[in-house]
Amino acid sequence: MNDLSSRQKKLLQMLISETEYRPISLFARALQVSERTVHNDLNELKNVLDGKEATLNKQPGIGIQLHATASARLRLLNMAASGSEGDDPLSTGVRRCQMAMQMLSTGKTTSVQKLSEAYYVSRTSIVADLEWIERWGSNYNLTLVKNRIGTQLAGKEEDIRKALYAAVVMLMADGPGEPYNLTKGGRLNTATRNKLAGLFGDNEVMNIEGIVNNAEQMLSYRFNDYSYMNLLIQLLILVNRLRLNRQIELDDTTIVNASNVAESLADQIALHFQVDINDKEKMCINFYLMSSGMDNPLVSSKDAWLESVDEDMKILVKDMIRLFSEMMKVDFSEETVLYQGLLMHIKPMIHRLRHSSGVKNPHLDEIKQQYGAMFAATCLISSSIEHNYGIRMNEDEIGYLTIHFQAAMERNASIKKTIIVCSGGIGTSQLIANRIQRFVPQIQIADILPLSRFEQTDLAGIDFVISTVPIELHDDTPVVTISPLVSKKDIQNINYFYLDYVYEREKQTYNPVYLSRVLLPELCVAGAKVSSREEAVANLTNRMHEMGFINSEFEATVFRREALTPTSLGNGVAIPHGEVDHVLQSKIAVMSIPEGVDWGGEQVYIVFLIALKLDDELSAKEILNDLYNLLDSDYNMNRLRICQDHQRLYELLAGKGE
Hints:
One of its GO terms (molecular function) is protein-N(PI)-phosphohistidine-sugar phosphotransferase activity. It holds the Pfam family HTH_11. InterPro entries: BglG_antiterminators, HTH_11, PRD, PRD_sf, PTrfase/Anion_transptr, PTS_EIIA_type-2_dom, PTS_EIIB-like_sf, PTS_EIIB_2. Keywords: Repeat, Transcription, Transcription regulation, Transferase. With 658 residues, the protein is of the alpha/beta class. It has 28 helices and 14 strands. A four-stranded parallel β-sheet has the order 8-7-9-10. It has a four-stranded mixed β-sheet with strand order 11-13-14-12. Helix 4 crosses helix 9 and helix 5 crosses helix 7. The longest helix is centred in the middle third of the chain and has 19 residues. The chain is globular and about 85 Å long.
């Protein structure tokens, strides 16, 4: 197989990315060479194309187009991207993902020699790649089979499709590493479409995109961006497997009747791609639809959609909002945006969890870092879903719910009064007021004053001051200094101040009346040195058990929950908790670990073991409200983290003295 020059590789990349016939002159201009040179390069490319899987087709007067199967496109993409003999880590990762994709999507066996020739790397590199693929495949219960026929990844069809999905997502992200954000760039931008076309073919992507759009019209709502991309990829994989006559293997007892929408999608897929779709495949399509999250009902059918939601689901959402209201001490019962948002999210979420088809939350780390207290509150509120539906929540889904609740809190933050101090004239004053009202509507402007009048102003009832000149106040009223023209940076500073400082002022008085009732000095361990989260949990559960607050089975339920999803909050705090049925008396045990301990990949310095009995005379909601306020206070959490004395730790937690 001939070596390609860098120009020829660039030409190959351009051909792969084009989905229509293009004139030779277009490529000549892009490469800054003559059309004759392009013709010569095309002749060289023909020598490296497999005539059965990839061909260069010409139409006189129109141009040229590359026609290739999905596996050939993968091979050619790798060839076009290959550089010097030493691949960098990213290209190695991409190569491995492409190899895995090829082995799964073609249904053919391969060999070290074939792969070495296809990917232009040494046999030693290919052996290392196959070892990586073998480890990766084991995550999906796949086996790398090597025999005289060749090498292939083998396993159950359901597992192969899961692995294919993972391989596609990795290739969308240009290799293994950080999870690809399926919402990046919107629904299906040009770059994403080209990547998918490179993996599955342009016609396939175009037809499946149309089918998914038809599904939205039939359902009378739009899928959110993540679900839209997820459904698109799942259906492309389904078509790929059916073309290879690989049918899904499901137990007949699990088959349920597909919805009319799923039946319609199956008929459209069968017609477009000339494949047979049995009841098991229709059930898969039905499952993909039911697991897809909503963006919004189409405007014309919003009321009808709300009426169609199951009453049980409405009751569940209202119950969660009630718990949230009681915990936050804010009435959210009339929060329409929160109610509708949860309705649209929770139904597909429950379906995903019941069928062990989780989604990856690309923003999880950021959510836990920025909204750790709300994440903890949501984790505890989610127990109502677990109890009612017999499922276990994972941290990715909890992260999505956290956003709904955090947004509701910020929408309902109380209006703050401010006075604007301006050294300019009336025009400048009005400009400042108008920009602030436009971009920070939650602020009420009580007055606009020149500096000379401001000095005699009574600041009673004023939460903070915005000024275009530096000023110092004798009381503790905060001042935000901005420029006379109110730049974008000024608006950001005012927003940050409002959310971070003013909101904190509402909570700065730590008075844990209810939390203090479930704390005991004997359950507070300061300056602990533990080597694992298991050791930390065992220490605290043993203390509780010895004092008669939990039964012997409680610890096992804590570990089961930790095995499903770690209870770390991303801010150095963990809140392990077990099933309420094994709680004899409500108590919370606390451990500070100054050196930290690994908690499912995150360093944790403070552990709250929560054992609350819902029917206890103490209000669990009031206790959790106190705990939320504690977790949301950086000042108090920092004091707990460095505490080395058991009694002092108890006093800080119970609010007994500074």
